[in-house]
Structure formats: structure tokens, C-alpha cells
Write a structure and sequence with these properties.
The protein is an alpha+beta fold. 45% of the residues lie in helices and 15% in strands. The chain contains four helices and four strands; from the N terminus they run αββαβαβα. A two-stranded parallel ribbon has the order 1-4. The two termini are 21 Å apart.
Length: 91
């Protein structure tokens, strides 16, 4: 939403990768409910599955529909990671 509000939404790659978004409060509750016991790996996600392009378009629509949607090739993103890591160790 922040990108859409700023006028440009960037998707990495084709935008066809899928995800099932989950609200941060729902995720936090899930983690607390399962922290004491359960398998080491648990799958969690929202009930609906969207492509990254669909999520971007929903954000654009929610913010008035005037933002541009740009696709950035994965090779450019992967190639720029060392530079980003130089400035920010969280990358």
C-alpha cells in the first residue's frame, strides 16, 4: 500500500508467484498458539491465494488507481543485492 500511495508499485519478476497473505495479528496469534508444542515447521497463510501482480493491482485500486505498476527483472534485483548489503546488512 505504501508503494501504491507513493505512485509506483514494483513487482519482482513476472509477478506470477503466488502467496496467501495473512494479517500480522493473525500470524502473531498463530505463533503464540503453537510456540510451546507442535512440529518444527508449520504452514500458515490466509484463506485466499493471489499472484504478486494481483496483490499489486489490489493495492493500486485501494489507493485510488493512479499508481503505476512496474516489473523489475529478477536478474537486476539479484545483481544489486551485494550493493544493497553494503549499505544495509538486513538485505
Amino acid at each position: 500500500l505504501r508503494m501504491a500511495k507513493n505512485g509506483v508499485v514494483v513487482s519482482v519478476g513476472s509477478g506470477e508467484n503466488k502467496t496467501n497473505p495473512i494479517h500480522e495479528h493473525d500470524l502473531a496469534k498463530f505463533c503464540v498458539d503453537h510456540i510451546e508444542q507442535g512440529p518444527d515447521i508449520l504452514e500458515v497463510g490466509g484463506p485466499e491465494v493471489y499472484t504478486r501482480s494481483q496483490i499489486a493491482e489490489l493495492a493500486i485500486k485501494a489507493t485510488g488507481g493512479s499508481a503505476q505498476h512496474l516489473y523489475l527483472p529478477e536478474t537486476i534485483v539479484k545483481g544489486s543485492l551485494p550493493l544493497l548489503q553494503f549499505y544495509d546488512q538486513n538485505f
